[in-house]
């Protein structure tokens, strides 16, 4: 290319770049003030980038009913999202609304004064039946409520109905039946259970411990018990037996579990009810192709079935420019109509007890039972354990799946991480 | 003569065999992306499905994520930043090798040192600084950071490339009264066509595939690069995206770099003679 | 004798004392290098300085930052998990030098000067264009227990037919190196091709006249003259392999357990998952210093001995 043309090209390129950038606009800081109808949609930061289309749907409904909508700013990695929001508190780039985690994480940002109080919303919500009082403690810090539930998912077992029917099996309601189902499947060469070393390596640990001794499970999260105590060891031993007996799928399987269930490679997958989205995406029909049941307690003498749940809070920034609008949105958010839309679009349950999934009887019955107080709800390990302990535990459980004979050393490792943590943080998660 | 042809034939054969081996994983990706979303089974993944599900997969991917909007931003970043980086890198290489900049090796190591830092740790300080100076969520801000990341590679390649250019060319042009800048623009840059092209297409692909910086330093749909939208589909467990849909999206998004590779093939088809002009 | 001293390769040093015209090398030489230096210093070095500072503190991402002095570094030296990470990182460095670099050179040499060469190289370049997650999915399918890799190995009668590649060390790191090779080889080949094409004709012609061919030709003529681009490929591969993160994160996240962790993964996990920013920053600093030293030593040897380094 000749020289004059190249120079012209460089100049043209720079000019184009600058023009586009100028037109693109800089960081928007629309000073909306405390008006209840902001000039721009509220920014909703979240770590569920995949839910952007669902946030948009609810946002459209909000626009119709409230006069303003929300713009989701989705992140896909929970860890980088958290680091980002943490850092944003130090800058002028702040969210209006943002998702977070319950447990110690919520306490931390409340203690830093970053979150708006939502006492009134909870009071009204519980009175109207839109919020469940069983969830309230998890959103309470120092006697006051903060944030509202973005989502609630209950953990149980998804199963392949065709396989069950083939061998004449029905969802178990006791531990003995549960073991029987697994044994029958195994004898026909079907892998009963699924486990994975990536991200969800804690699932069997939490399920077995919660089903054996839920009090111990809660004490662990508060640093009041040891990971090497007999109750924990016994729960892990059950897991070890499952692995040794060949009941578990290969933990290194990187295939999407939904595919595994669909193809019948694995018969049962323990997961949160949000896993239902994966099922519907694969065009599987609830009740025909797959079903869901709550895993029975290991210990039959416990009064209620332990059910692990996860719930993410949706928070509004305290002292934000749009705090009046934020509060208005959150109050509206917990209502039945928005929650029904939120729930149906994703194919998952909602924190609103009046909302179920019309075409999924199994999941709707879970909601009914929760409303009736039939379950002992326990917070998922992922939120309940302090981050340094969680980090070690995730690695250790993954190692355990591959080398089940390291049970005691594995528990020792988690315990030493826990001890280090609680030594510098007085008890109380 | 015959010996030469034989040599060439066996070379071609080796390349074809290696190439086919190399294409196999790509074949897997393509065959999975075009199959219907619910027909994927990893143990028989290499067997093509009877039905074509590509359009359905792409449609699903398109509606589930904001891929469309972000394509424009990514294109801007992937073209502007590598162009600037090539220019800046070539200037630096020229100064160090041809102009024999004092302490040239030190300056070179300083620039090269930019590639040594693990980028994950730069994210938060960059975010805080960008927010302070108003470059957050800003296209110019993104171009600047992508240029900074690309410049060391460009400088390295250009610096080393220029060492193979005969110094006599520079001397002769100086004798003729040309300014150093003119010599750079009219002699060295054209000579470095293949190197510049290689740097550009590699950097284009790198910037195009970037996720972390895009995720941390932007938030509006108008500034976010395309990988952020794709990641939501592919790596988010809560998405429940079937594998064929995720891969179909990945294929569509990978098209620009692939097209670029195809289109620039002729740059590398022939050699250059650097000792002669 | 280096071929660079061959009289036909024109590389003369400056005649001294010439002052009659404007200085041969121009007056504003630093101006040429300043954009690159400025950009890199402000956007890459400064944030890293922040990381260095953070490595001397304890910080959880929220709340106060407390000064910790050398505590993080002391902990680093006694951390058994980091030892695994160091071993794996070394494995990555060795593997990357052997596979993507050497094979890249092979492909470049094989395809040099044949008609349609760039088309033969295309299958190697395409993997680089695919995004990381697509690559990870494809390779996960291949490496699946009971998947294609297993079937192929059994069919060929090789060991590994029943292996679960991603579950055990060091196999998991080794197969990930394979996946990374698949992606990176084309890049290296392209750079080597640029290097081969920039070799001046004279020494080649001269050597041919002298009767050299084939292997001798390669060893005595091409290889030394390829050195500048070899330095690029090796130098960049060294640094990149020390910083290995993306492909490991997507395929195993450093697991199971910590068996496939690299230094960069450990750094990321400690900072962003365990919320121990100070400790993670210390790992980052150590990693950077080590990478910097290694690349400095390597480049000094490769480039520092040349005559064109300025006064």
Annotation keywords:
heterotrimer; A: 429 residues; alpha/beta; D-Maltodextrin-Binding Protein, domain 2; 2 domains; 8-stranded mixed beta sheet; two-stranded antiparallel sheet; 18 helices; globular; C: 311 residues; mainly alpha; MetI-like fold; flat; disordered N terminus; disordered C terminus
Q: Based on the structure given, which CATH architecture of the largest domain in chain B is correct?
A: Orthogonal Bundle
Radius of gyration of chain B: 23 Å
Strand content of chain B: under 5%
Number of domains of chain A: 2
CATH class of the largest domain in chain B: Mainly Alpha
Q: Which regions of chain B are unreliable across 5 or more consecutive residues at pLDDT < 50? A: 273-277
| The CATH H-level homologous superfamily of the largest domain in chain B | MetI-like
Give the overall average pLDDT of chain B. 87
Structural class of chain B: mainly alpha
Give the integer mean of the pLDDT values of chain A. 88
- State the name of the first-level CATH class of the largest domain in chain A: Alpha Beta
Please give the oligomerization state of what you see. Answer: heterotrimer
Outline the structure in words:
The complex is a heterotrimer of chains A (429), B (277) and C (311). By secondary structure, chain A is α/β, with parallel strands linked by helices. Chain A contains 18 helices and ten strands. In chain A, strands 1, 2, 3, 6, 7, 8, 9 and 10 form an eight-stranded mixed beta sheet that branches. A two-stranded antiparallel ribbon of chain A has the order 4-5. The model of chain B is unreliable at 273-277 (pLDDT under 50). Chain B has helices spanning 2-33, 54-64, 67-98, 104-112, 119-133, 139-162, 167-175, 180-191, 193-208, 212-217, 226-235, 243-263. Chain B is built from twelve helices and no strands. Helices cover 66% and strands 1% of the residues of chain C. The chains are: A alpha/beta (429), B mainly alpha (277), C mainly alpha (311).
């Amino acid at each position: 290319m000749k020289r004059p043309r190249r120079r012209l090209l460089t100049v043209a390129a720079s000019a184009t770049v600058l023009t586009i950038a100028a037109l693109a606009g800089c960081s928007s800081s629309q000073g909306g003030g405390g008006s209840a109808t902001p000039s721009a949609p509220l920014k909703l930061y979240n770590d569920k980038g995949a839910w952007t289309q669902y946030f948009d749907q609810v946002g459209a409904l909000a626009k119709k009913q409230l006069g303003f909508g929300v713009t989701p700013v989705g992140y896909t990695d929970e860890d980088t999202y958290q680091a980002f929001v943490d850092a944003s508190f130090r800058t002028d780039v702040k969210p209006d609304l943002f998702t977070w985690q319950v447990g110690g994480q919520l306490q931390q940002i409340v203690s830093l004064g970053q979150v708006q109080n939502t006492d009134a919303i909870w009071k009204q919500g519980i009175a109207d039946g839109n919020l469940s009082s069983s969830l309230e403690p998890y959103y309470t810090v120092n006697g006051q409520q903060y944030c509202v539930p973005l989502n609630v998912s209950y953990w149980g077992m998804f199963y392949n109905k065709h396989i069950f029917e083939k061998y004449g099996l029905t969802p178990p309601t006791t531990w003995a039946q549960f073991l029987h189902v697994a044994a029958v499947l195994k004898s026909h060469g079907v892998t009963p259970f699924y486990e994975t070393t990536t991200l969800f390596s804690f699932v069997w640990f939490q399920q077995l411990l919660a089903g054996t001794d839920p009090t111990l499970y809660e004490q662990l999260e508060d640093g009041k018990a040891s990971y090497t105590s007999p109750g924990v060891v016994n729960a892990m031993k059950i897991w070890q037996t499952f692995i040794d007996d060949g009941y578990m799928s290969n933990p290194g399987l990187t295939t999407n579990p939904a595919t595994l269930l669909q193809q019948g490679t694995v018969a049962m997958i323990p997961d949160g009810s949000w896993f239902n989205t994966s099922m519907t995406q694969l065009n599987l029909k609830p009740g025909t192709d797959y079903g869901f049941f709550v895993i029975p307690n290991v210990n039959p003498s416990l009064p209620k079935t332990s059910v692990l749940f996860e719930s993410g809070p949706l928070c509004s920034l305290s002292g934000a420019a749009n705090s009046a609008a934020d509060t208005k949105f959150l109050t509206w958010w917990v209502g039945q109509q928005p929650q029904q839309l939120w729930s149906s679009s994703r194919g998952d349950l909602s924190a609103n007890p009046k909302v179920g999934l019309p075409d999924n009887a199994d999941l709707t019955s879970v909601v009914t039972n929760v409303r009736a107080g039939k379950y002992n709800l326990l917070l998922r390990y992922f939120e309940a354990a302090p981050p340094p302990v969680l980090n070690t535990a995730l690695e250790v459980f993954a190692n355990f799946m591959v080398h089940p004979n390291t049970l005691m050393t594995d528990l020792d490792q988690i315990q030493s991480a826990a001890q280090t943590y609680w030594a510098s943080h007085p008890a109380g998660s | 003569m015959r010996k030469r042809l034989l040599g060439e034939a066996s070379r071609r054969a080796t390349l074809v065999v290696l190439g086919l081996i190399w294409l196999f994983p790509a074949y897997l990706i393509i065959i999975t992306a075009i199959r219907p979303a619910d027909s994927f089974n990893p143990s028989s993944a290499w067997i093509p499905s009877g039905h074509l599900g590509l359009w359905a997969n792409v449609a699903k991917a398109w509606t589930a994520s904001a891929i469309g909007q972000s394509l424009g931003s990514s294109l801007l970043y992937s073209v502007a930043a590598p162009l600037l980086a090539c220019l800046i890198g070539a200037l630096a290489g020229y100064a160090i090798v041809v102009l024999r900049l004092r302490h040239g090796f030190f300056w070179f190591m300083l620039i090269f040192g930019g590639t040594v830092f693990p980028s994950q740790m730069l994210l938060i300080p960059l975010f805080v600084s960008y927010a302070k100076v108003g470059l957050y969520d800003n296209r110019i801000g993104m171009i600047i950071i992508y240029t900074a990341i690309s410049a060391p590679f460009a400088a390295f390649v250009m610096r080393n490339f220029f060492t193979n250019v005969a110094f006599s060319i520079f001397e002769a042009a100086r004798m003729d009264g040309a300014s150093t800048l003119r010599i750079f623009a009219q002699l060295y840059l054209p000579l470095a066509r293949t190197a510049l092209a290689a740097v550009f297409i590699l950097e284009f692909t790198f910037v195009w595939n970037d996720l972390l910086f895009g995720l941390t330093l932007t938030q509006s749909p108008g500034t976010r690069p395309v990988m952020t939208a794709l990641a939501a589909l592919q790596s988010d467990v809560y998405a429940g995206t079937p594998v064929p849909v995720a891969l179909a999206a990945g294929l569509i998004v990978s098209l620009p770099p692939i097209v670029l590779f195809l289109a620039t093939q002729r740059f590398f088809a022939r050699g250059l003679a650097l000792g002669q002009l | 004798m280096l071929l660079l001293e061959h009289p036909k390769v024109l590389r003369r040093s400056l005649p001294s004392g010439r002052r009659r015209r404007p200085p041969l090398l121009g007056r504003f030489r630093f101006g040429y290098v300043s954009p690159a230096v400025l950009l890199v210093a402000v956007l890459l070095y400064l944030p890293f300085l922040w990381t260095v500072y953070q490595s001397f503190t304890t910080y959880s991402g929220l709340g106060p930052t407390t000064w910790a002095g050398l505590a993080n570094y002391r902990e680093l030296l006694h951390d058994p998990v980091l030892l695994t990470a160091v071993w794996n990182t070394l494995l990555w460095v060795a593997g990357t030098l052997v596979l993507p670099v050497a094979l890249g050179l092979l492909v470049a040499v094989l395809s040099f000067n044949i008609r349609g060469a760039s088309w033969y190289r295309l299958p190697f370049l395409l993997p680089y264009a695919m995004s990381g997650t697509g690559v990870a999915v494809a390779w996960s399918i291949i490496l699946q227990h009971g998947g294609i890799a297993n079937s192929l190995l059994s069919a060929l009668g090789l060991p590994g037919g029943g292996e679960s590649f991603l579950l055990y060390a060091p196999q998991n790191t080794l197969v990930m190196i394979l996946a990374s090779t698949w992606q990176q080889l084309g890049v290296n080949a392209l750079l080597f091709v640029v290097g081969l094409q920039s070799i001046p004709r004279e020494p080649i012609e001269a050597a041919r006249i002298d009767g050299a061919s084939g292997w001798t030709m390669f060893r005595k003529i091409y290889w030394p003259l390829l050195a500048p681009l070899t330095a690029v490929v090796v130098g960049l591969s060294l640094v990149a392999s020390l910083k290995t993160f993306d492909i490991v994160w997507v395929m195993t996240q450093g697991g199971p357990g910590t068996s496939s962790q690299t230094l960069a993964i450990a750094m990321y996990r400690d900072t962003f998952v365990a919320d121990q920013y100070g400790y993670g920053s210390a790992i980052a600093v150590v990693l950077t210093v080590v990478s910097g030293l290694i690349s400095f030593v390597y480049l000094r040897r490769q480039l520092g001995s040349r005559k064109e380094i300025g006064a």
